[in-house]
Amino acid sequence: MTVTSLFLDMEEKNVLIVGTGQVGIRRARRFLDAGAYVSIITHGIDYDIKEEFINKGAVFYSDNALDELIKKCDLVVVATDNMELNREISLKAHDKLVNCASDISLSNVIVPSTFNIGSVTISLYTNSKSPLMAKQLRKKIQSIITETDILFIELQEYVRYLLKKHVSSQDDRKEFMIHVNEDEIVQKLIEEGKLDEAKKYVKCLIEKIN
Ligand SMILES: C[C@@]1(CC(=O)O)c2cc3[nH]c(cc4nc(cc5[nH]c(cc(n2)[C@H]1CCC(=O)O)[C@@](C)(CC(=O)O)[C@@H]5CCC(=O)O)C(CC(=O)O)=C4CCC(=O)O)c(CCC(=O)O)c3CC(=O)O
Ligand SMILES: NC(=O)C1=CN([C@@H]2O[C@H](COP(=O)(O)OP(=O)(O)OC[C@H]3O[C@@H](n4cnc5c(N)ncnc54)[C@H](O)[C@@H]3O)[C@@H](O)[C@H]2O)C=CC1
Question: 14-111: which CATH architecture?
Answer without folding.
Answer: 3-Layer(aba) Sandwich (3.40)
